[in-house]
Amino acid sequence: MTRFNRDASRWFIYLSGIAWIFTGAAIAQTNVRTTVQHVNFDSPEAWALKYFTSTTMLSGLQPPERPIEERRFGSIALGLELGWLPALSPEQARVGFGGRKEEDLNKVPIFARPRVTVGLPWRFSLIVAAPPTLRVFGVAPHLFALGLERPILERDQWRLDWRVSGQLGSVNGAFTCPNSALGFPSGSPNNPTGCIARSSDTISLRYAGTELQFAHRIPRIPRLTPHVAAGVNFIDGVVQVNAPLQKYLDRTRLWTHGTTFSGSVGASYLLTRRVAFVVDAFYSPLGVQRSPTAPRANDGLFNVRALLSYNLR
């Protein structure tokens, strides 16, 4: 009888442990906080979306116009585009929870992507650009941009071009719960939300825009062509948080949309008959209200971009 009681007690302990494990797993699985929230286009979260979307826009960077006899259907130009991403100050990076939490946004110092320009009928050109889908600096981009452009006015020394462009895709990284926060106790200044593991957040950088560009060829320096451009862009941004916190899994989804303006000035230089180098200074004014009591201010993006292109055919 005593042995039976011991066996029964052992089985009871085993079954209770198994039941506790499954109950705990079920509780953990259901302890997920999922909210969908629209944020104002001038909010700190929306400002960050506008800022990083603007860094990826197909703006400016117009190589020298090819001779008329080379503007044919099927012509191909290969290019490598590089863009400088200025580091954000702690105040600028404080975009979480309406501007109260600093996020890890200073991950990538440059933006690089190959691009291909293909000649279409009626002097249209199609631009395709996409960065490699590799995780670099802790960030994995999945972006695809398209542009369609055409000269609309042209004279001996100048021309006016029109371009429409857009982008789909997202960037994945640990923006809300980076590795740097995991070594600090929950609720501390360096880990205010209680991160217990790296997050896997996704930021959608979608836009559609149009642009006019004026280029003037210098007679005394025929290889050099200065240009200026101005554009208007519609941004549709989303932040999908996926952050394991001490008390729950945060699956907050924030979205916003609105219009921005942009401008660039630069010059292209024809290195050889087929190789050209282009450099542009880009600026986009971006409105933001850092707190409910703060006035609306302009905290725009200024960066420098360059393109090295080769006319394959």
Describe this structure in words.
The protein has 2 domains: 1-30; 34-311, Beta Barrel (Lipocalin), CATH 2.40.128. The protein has 3 helices and 18 strands. The protein has helices at residues 2-30, 44-55, 90-93; strands spanning 32-33, 36-38, 76-84, 94-96, 101-102, 110-119, 125-129, 139-154, 158-173, 201-216, 224-240, 243-244, 249-250, 253-270, 275-284, 287-288, 297-298, 301-311. The strands form 4 sheets. The chain has a 10-stranded antiparallel barrel with strand order 3-6-7-8-9-10-11-14-15-18. Strands 1-13-12 form a 3-stranded mixed β-sheet. The protein has a two-stranded antiparallel sheet with strand order 4-5. A hairpin with an 8-residue loop joins β16 (287-288) and β17. The longest helix has 29 residues, at 2-30. The protein is elongated. Mean pLDDT is 89; it is low at 15-29.
